[in-house]
Amino acid sequence: MLPAPLRAWLGVTAVLAALVVVVLGVLYAGHSESGRVDRWFVEPTADSVRPPWRRVALALDFLGEPAGSLMLVGAVVTGCLLLRRPRAAVLVAAGVVMTVGTATLLKHVVGRTIHGDGNLSYPSGHTAFFTALALAVALLAVGRLGFGRAAGMSLLLGTALVAGAAMGWAEVALSAHYPTDAVGGWCTALAVVPATAWLVDRVADRLADAGRREHR
Question: Which residues form the signal peptide (predicted)?
Answer without folding.
Answer: none
